[in-house]
């Protein structure tokens, strides 16, 4: 079985971390598979939303499989496969996996089925709507190993959460429960594990019913203006609004409203 499963369901891409026997840690195959999955979501104009989740009912992702990837990155051993060759020769693969390099403006839903530790907590920060199972936990234990959470958390977390909450996760090391994560604003909602799939489907379906270009413009504006001065941010927002107003979907949406029917958006 592949370490990353990619399934296209209509306008939805479902990406599943598939190493439950290894706590869904990211080995070389998973790094390459996840990077390729994001590229496919970005390039396929028919895909409007991505859902990222994991196999099993205990772990979403417990970080990187250090025993597998570190020897390759340090040169301690030579690649033995095409996947390992790609991993060694692409120093920015982690940026691609965590969506730090080329930004993905399509909405991403995270269905967090268990523990998200280290890289797991870093990965969910690259998503938009985050649904956590009741038993999920979140932590960045890297400082306990003498390293730092350098896949985005030291920048993203203090922008996504109030300072004190972000620093509790960054500096504390101890796991945060799903309930605590909800109170902090790290996740959108918490549900029983048995309801997780259905809630992810609900959000994915709701997103697919809306105009894809409009949703991408909303996410693009939120990301690009997050640290801009007000005047620059409002100018960027106005430009995005003007572009969307000229789209076919904008005309279809207003026409459907007048005709009292569901719109048929084409992404144009």
State the gist of this model:
The chain is built from 12 helices and 10 strands.
Give the biggest beta sheet: 6 strands, mixed
Sheet with most strands: strand arrangement: 1-2-3-5-7-10
What order do the SSEs take from the amino end to the carboxyl end, as H and E? EEHEEHHHEEHEEHHEHEHHHH
Report how far the terminal alpha carbons are from each other: 37 Å
Helix proportion range: 40-55%
Q: What's the total number of strands?
A: 10
Mean pLDDT: 94
Please state the oligomeric state of the protein chains shown: single chain
Q: What is the radius of gyration computed over CA atoms, rounded to a whole number of angstroms?
A: 19 Å
Taken from the alpha-carbon principal axes, the silhouette is globular
Q: What amount of the residues lies in strands? A: 15-25%
Tally of separate helices: 12
What structural class is derived from the secondary structure elements?
alpha/beta
Uncertain segments of ≥5 residues (pLDDT<50)?
Answer: none
Q: Which secondary structure elements does this structure contain, and how are they paired or packed?
A:
Blueprint: E1 4-9, E2 12-17, H1 28-43, E3 49-54, E4 59-61, H2 66-74, H3 82-89, H4 93-97, E5 108-112, E6 115-117, H5 119-124, E7 129-133, E8 137-139, H6 153-160, H7 163-172, E9 176-177, H8 178-184, E10 189-191, H9 193-208, H10 212-224, H11 230-245, H12 248-258
Helix pairs in contact: 1-3, 6-7, 10-11
């Amino acid at each position: 079985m592949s370490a990353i499963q990619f399934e296209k369901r209509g306008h939805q891409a479902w990406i599943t971390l598939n190493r439950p026997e290894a706590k869904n840690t990211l080995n070389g195959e998973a790094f390459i598979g996840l990077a390729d999955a994001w590229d496919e979501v970005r390039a396929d104009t028919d895909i409007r939303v991505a859902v990222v989740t994991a196999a099993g009912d205990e772990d979403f992702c417990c970080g990187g499989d250090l025993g597998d990837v570190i020897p390759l990155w340090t040169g301690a051993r030579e690649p033995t496969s095409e996947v390992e060759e790609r991993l060694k020769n692409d120093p920015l693969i982690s940026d691609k996996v965590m969506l730090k390099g080329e930004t993905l403006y399509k909405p991403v839903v995270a269905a967090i089925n268990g523990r998200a530790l280290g890289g797991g907590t870093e990965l969910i920060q690259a998503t938009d709507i985050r649904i956590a199972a009741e038993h999920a936990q979140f932590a960045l234990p890297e400082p306990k190993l003498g390293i730092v959470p350098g896949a985005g958390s030291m920048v993203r977390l203090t922008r996504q959460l109030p300072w004190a909450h972000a620093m509790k996760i960054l500096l504390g090391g101890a796991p945060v429960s799903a309930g605590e994560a909800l109170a902090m604003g790290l996740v959108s909602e918490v549900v029983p594990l048995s309801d997780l799939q259905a809630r992810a489907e609900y959000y994915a379906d709701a997103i697919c019913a809306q105009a894809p270009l409009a949703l991408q413009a909303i996410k693009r504006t939120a990301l690009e203006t997050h640290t801009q001065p007000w005047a620059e941010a409002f100018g960027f927002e106005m430009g995005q609004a003007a572009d969307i107003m000229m789209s076919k979907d904008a005309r279809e949406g207003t026409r459907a409203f007048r005709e009292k029917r569901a719109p048929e958006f084409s992404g144009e």
